[in-house]
Backbone:
């Protein structure tokens, strides 16, 4: 009961809460169909219950938010219908049309108890989101961007987005490694979540990692298998599809389903229904290059053999020709050498004869010239001998001349003597010694 005061009535919090509870129970007695975005499912595995956070957004802003509860039994039934009809489980971020009762609890506040969810409505919303992604990609000119990239002649180096334990990944490698031609593919696994709410950031992050080493790869392959058609709505996401469309090398998808293509598959350079089919595609592209190369190799070998045979025959003909021509040429050269030898022999004899005659003539001329020269020299020697004899000091003395010496030297001038010096005078028949008493030069007065 409220507490009454003279000027006011005071209600307890519990009384207010119970009043709200009664009012809502009386006012909202029926079941209502409500549409909202399930921001978070909040599924608790230990109990199986879900406590979805429901929101309504306008221009990206939340304008209404409310808690709800989905008991385990209802969740299992609804989730199974979602998987069967739209190939997606209940998950975060999808728009739903649900049937619920409205209740208020004094402890837990206002909430909606979800009784049923219409999967057809969510399917329509997912399709609408898919079409919006397609329209935006085409409007921005990105839809065919990856498809326009030139496909490598030999797609040998593969960057693989998958899960190592995935059956699809295992099948993909088995087909690649077991190809009958023994082609070898270089591959590098980039582990990523491939379905569910977290698949989009996981794949985007790995695409960034691959782009940092883009020169190491020829193509990117997105491999998913074993999950059937469930959990593919993330591949309709604009951000993921845009990243694939704008990737700098071809992106190939093999995400293992047979229903309508997702946007990511549409913008990819090549799409295969299964990982095995994608592996076959890569092998065939490899083979398309290898077969012409092998054929060209066979043609080259065949043509080379033909050329070798033709050149061998030509070479044999040339050998025979050169052998015959060489014998003939050698014979001619031998005859020419013999003729030259005879001519050289005769010329040598003639030159020797001429040289002998010249030598004999030169000998005679030399003898004659030598005799004359000797006579002339003899005459000159005789004349010189007479001159020398005439100049002999003894001959001079014999003609009446004398030689005066002082200290053993011939005296030529009075300037070298003084009074009292002893002089030696040589005569033809002896010597005379004298003492200087007085000397006089010819120019003295």
Residues:
């Amino acid at each position: 009961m409220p507490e009454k005061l003279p000027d006011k009535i005071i209600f307890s919090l519990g009384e207010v809460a119970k009043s709200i509870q009664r009012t809502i129970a009386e006012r909202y007695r029926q079941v209502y169909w409500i549409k909202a975005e399930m921001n978070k499912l909040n599924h608790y595995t230990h109990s199986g219950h879900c406590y979805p956070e429901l929101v309504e957004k306008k221009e990206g802003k939340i304008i209404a938010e409310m808690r709800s509860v989905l008991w385990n039994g209802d969740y299992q039934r609804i989730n199974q219908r979602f998987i069967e009809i739209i190939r997606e489980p209940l998950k975060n971020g999808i728009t739903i049309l649900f049937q619920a009762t409205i209740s208020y609890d004094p402890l837990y506040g206002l909430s909606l108890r979800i009784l049923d969810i219409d999967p057809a409505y969510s399917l329509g919303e997912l399709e609408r989101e898919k079409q919006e992604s397609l329209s935006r990609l085409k409007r921005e000119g990105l839809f065919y961007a990856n498809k326009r990239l030139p496909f490598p002649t030999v797609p040998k180096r593969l960057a693989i987005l998958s899960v190592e334990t995935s059956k699809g990944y295992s099948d993909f490698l088995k087909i690649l490694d077991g190809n009958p031609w023994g082609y070898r593919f270089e591959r590098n696994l980039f582990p990523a979540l491939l379905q569910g709410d977290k698949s989009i950031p996981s794949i985007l992050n790995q695409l960034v990692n691959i782009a940092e080493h883009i020169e190491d790869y020829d193509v990117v392959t997105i491999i998913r298998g074993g999950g059937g058609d469930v959990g593919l709505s993330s591949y309709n996401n604009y951000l993921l599809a845009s990243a694939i469309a704008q990737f700098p090398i071809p992106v190939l998808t093999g995400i293992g389903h047979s229903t309508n293509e997702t946007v990511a598959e549409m913008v990819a350079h090549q799409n295969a229904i299964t990982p095995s089919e994608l592996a076959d595609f890569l092998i065939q592209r490899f083979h398309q290059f290898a077969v012409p190369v092998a054929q060209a190799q066979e043609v080259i070998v065949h043509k080379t053999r033909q050329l070798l045979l033709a050149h061998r025959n030509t070479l044999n003909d040339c050998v025979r020709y050169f052998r015959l021509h060489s014998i003939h040429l050698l014979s001619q050269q031998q005859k020419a050498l013999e003729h030259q030898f005879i001519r050289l022999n005769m010329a040598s004899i003639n030159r020797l004869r001429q040289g002998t005659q010249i030598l004999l003539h030169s000998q005679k001329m030399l003898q004659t010239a030598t005799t004359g020269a000797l006579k002339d020299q003899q005459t000159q020697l005789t004349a010189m001998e007479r001159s020398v004899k005439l100049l002999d000091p003894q001959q001079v003395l014999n003609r009446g001349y004398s030689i005066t010496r002082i200290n053993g030297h011939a005296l030529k001038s009075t300037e070298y003597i003084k009074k009292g010096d002893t002089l030696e005078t040589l005569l033809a028949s002896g010597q005379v010694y004298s003492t200087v008493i007085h000397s006089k030069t010819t120019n003295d007065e």
